[in-house]
């Protein structure tokens, strides 16, 4: 996390307001403490669980998120629900992508073999830079569902209007040589 | 008159490094032709006694045909009788195919423009020069045309250059070139077994020419390769100018010669794997080509010639899906399959087959679409192989996107199934770019799953590929209702 101290604080604060306003947060999971500055060594907001230590606790929000896998026959998308705790929208984006990459047998994550180099959020556009190991290249239907599963997963968030998918920093015509990739992918 | 303004602009961007080369200190010279001043947007300059002028002076001012090729950074200037080829920063030039050393400043890129020594070029093309030191003026005079009957030679093709000769890990020898003429039919000779390929009106760029030894050839020895022991290249003949490549083949080696953009490729393989009918080495399938149909008269006079585009998916940096069980890549299957389908289809004169790629090259999806549109294809078939994490998934899928392609997909699917002999995963509709943005009936075949060991061995089995080719050809005839 590159975000400076101030940005994190502002981000968390803004997020708190936003989510509180929408009533999405589950009160039980919201730590009662005030917004806490991150320690200089790292980003406390990344810790998955709020700690019960006497030390000031980062304010974490929690949300149930849908991620999409494919069934064992590569025929249809399967919804999987996960609960994600996060301190900022960008963190929610990152953790959702992590969840999207997990298999849940027998269903498969098409994103399982893709390396995420970075995922950032700026003015409603999620920019995701990836690396596709050659061994993870899919056929035509797999590539189609790979993109669809990402769109379906990320466009559930109000705060994401577009996805700028980059391959090692480049805007490529196609991820795997079958489907043309829009830059950015837009919410339908 | 050909103009390459956009290419020049592009090149200029690539060579911004040269922008910092110092400006000529003194006032630029003025150029006059037959007493009339030639104006140019870039000022001529004098370097080490030579006047360098932008290419446009030669073309627009003097009326020569000027070509610029970015790859080898080559300038060709010609009039009716003389062809001069110059390479940026090289003191070897070629005049009507003969190499000459020049002692003036070679052509160079200055301030983003290609500058050529005007006197050198002009004199070779029959212009006389006068330099007026006091007023810093270059005066050029055209000599009266002296038609020399008898010496008029039939038009010589432009000379091309071979820029590199290499072999990759797949035992494909690649001859990169700039404007080299398509080689003549390769000759397969015995004792020792070797393949001889001649490139007419072709020379080597100086870097390569320098590698040619005193024995007149450059030889590259290849160790531990069943297909060949070495390959060598030479300037076989100076008149007519001919470059030659010889490949010393193993006893059981066959080859397929293909041509791509600025490249000829000789793929070496076991004789048994050579497609039944060798790919025609003469005609590179260029998008703008549609070569005139052969005046063949099929039994049925009303029968048209059908243009079929076969699109081998992926290529080069995009290897496609991977077969872990065989350690092979989808791009290899796709290419092998289309070469076989092409050979099979071309047994019937009513088909003219165009391949989007004939070797291991990378093409954007849009290039494939444009290619099919340019040749006005009647049918488009993209050949792929599939992959999924679950290795038990297997079978053939045939995709279409537009309504005019559905019947074609349904017909072809039956034949692809018969060819592959594996599970049926059905005909499906999906918006893959090459079948979405083309306009003719177009399908994308996923011939099997490389991630499935059994499908993978079928995909890479020579006999299955042959059968697939036969069945696809049958399917096309069925769909077109051809006997």
From TrEMBL, chain A:
Residues 33-57 are annotated as: Disordered. Residues 1-20 form the signal peptide. Pfam families: Germane (PF10646). Residues 67-173 form the GerMN domain. Residues 33-50 have a biased composition (Low complexity). Keywords: Signal. It comes from the Bacteria. This is GerMN domain-containing protein.
UniProtKB/TrEMBL annotation, chain B:
Residues 275-304 are annotated as: Disordered. Residues 369-477 form the MurNAc-LAA domain. SUPFAM superfamilies: Copper amine oxidase, domain N (SSF55383), Zn-dependent exopeptidases (SSF53187). Keywords: Hydrolase, Signal. GO terms for cellular component: outer membrane-bounded periplasmic space. Residues 1-24 form the signal peptide. One of its GO terms (biological process) is peptidoglycan catabolic process. GO terms for molecular function: N-acetylmuramoyl-L-alanine amidase activity. This is MurNAc-LAA domain-containing protein. It comes from Paenibacillus agaridevorans.
């Amino acid at each position: 996390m590159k975000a400076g101290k101030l940005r994190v604080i502002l981000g968390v604060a803004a997020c708190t307001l936003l989510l509180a306003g929408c009533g999405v947060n589950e009160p039980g999971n919201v730590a009662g403490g005030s917004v806490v500055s991150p320690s200089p060594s790292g980003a406390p907001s990344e810790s998955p669980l709020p700690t019960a230590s006497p030390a000031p606790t980062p304010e974490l929000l929690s949300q149930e998120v849908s991620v999409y896998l494919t069934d064992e026959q590569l025929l249809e998308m399967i919804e999987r629900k996960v609960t994600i705790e996060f301190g900022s929208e960008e963190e929610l984006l990152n953790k959702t992508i992590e969840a999207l990459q997990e298999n849940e047998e027998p269903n498969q994550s098409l994103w399982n073999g893709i390396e995420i180099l970075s995922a950032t959020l700026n003015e409603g556009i999620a920019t995701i830079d990836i690396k596709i190991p050659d061994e993870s290249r899919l056929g035509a239907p797999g590539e189609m569902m790979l993109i669809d599963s990402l769109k379906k997963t990320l466009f559930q968030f109000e705060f994401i209007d577009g996805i700028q998918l980059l391959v090692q920093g480049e805007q490529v015509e196609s991820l795997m040589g079958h489907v043309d990739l829009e830059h950015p992918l837009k919410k339908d | 008159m050909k103009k390459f303004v956009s290419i020049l602009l592009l090149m200029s961007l690539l060579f911004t490094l040269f922008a910092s080369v110092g400006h000529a200190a003194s006032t630029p010279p003025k150029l006059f032709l037959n007493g009339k001043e030639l104006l140019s947007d870039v000022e001529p300059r004098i370097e080490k006694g030579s006047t360098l002028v932008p290419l446009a002076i030669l073309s627009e001012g003097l009326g020569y045909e000027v070509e610029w090729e970015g790859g080898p950074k080559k300038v060709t200037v010609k009039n009716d009788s003389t062809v001069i080829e110059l390479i940026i920063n090289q003191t070897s030039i070629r005049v009507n195919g003969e190499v000459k050393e020049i002692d003036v400043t070679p052509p160079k890129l200055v301030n983003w423009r290609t500058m050529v020594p005007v006197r050198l070029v002009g004199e070779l093309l029959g212009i006389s020069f006068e330099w007026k030191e006091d007023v810093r003026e270059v005066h050029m005079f055209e000599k009266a045309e002296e038609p020399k009957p008898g010496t008029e030679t039939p038009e010589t093709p432009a000379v091309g250059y071979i820029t590199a000769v290499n072999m990759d890990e797949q035992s494909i020898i690649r001859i990169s070139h700039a404007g080299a003429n398509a080689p003549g039919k390769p000759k397969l000779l015995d004792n020792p077994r070797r393949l001889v390929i001649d490139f007419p009106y072709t020379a080597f760029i100086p870097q390569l020419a320098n590698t040619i030894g005193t024995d007149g050839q450059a030889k590259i020895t290849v160790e531990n390769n069943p297909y060949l022991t070495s390959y060598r290249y030479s300037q076989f003949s100076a008149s007519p100018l001919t470059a030659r490549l010889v490949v010393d083949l193993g006893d059981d080696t066959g080859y397929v010669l293909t041509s791509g953009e600025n490249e000829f490729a000789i793929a070496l393989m076991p004789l048994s794997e050579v497609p039944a009918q060798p790919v025609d080495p003469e005609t590179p399938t260029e998008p703008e080509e549609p070569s005139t149909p052969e005046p063949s008269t099929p039994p049925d006079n009303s029968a048209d010639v059908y243009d079929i585009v076969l699109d081998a998916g992926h290529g080069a940096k995009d290897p496609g899906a991977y077969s872990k069980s065989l350690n092979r890549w989808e791009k290899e299957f796709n290419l092998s399959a289309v070469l076989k389908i092409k050979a099979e289809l071309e047994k019937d004169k009513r088909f003219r087959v165009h391949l989007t790629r004939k070797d291991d090259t990378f093409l954007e999806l849009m290039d494939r679409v444009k290619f099919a549109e340019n040749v006005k294809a009647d049918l488009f078939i993209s050949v792929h192989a599939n992959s999924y994490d679950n290795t038990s998934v297997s079978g053939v899928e045939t995709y279409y996107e537009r309504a005019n392609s559905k019947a074609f997909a349904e017909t072809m699917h039956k034949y692809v199934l018969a060819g592959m002999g594996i599970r049926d995963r059905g005909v499906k509709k999906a918006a893959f770019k090459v079948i979405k943005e083309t306009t003719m009936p177009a399908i994308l075949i996923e011939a099997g799953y490389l991630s499935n060991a059994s499908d993978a061995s079928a995909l890479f089995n020579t006999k299955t590929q042959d059968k697939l080719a036969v069945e696809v050809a049958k399917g096309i005839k069925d769909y077109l209702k051809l006997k």
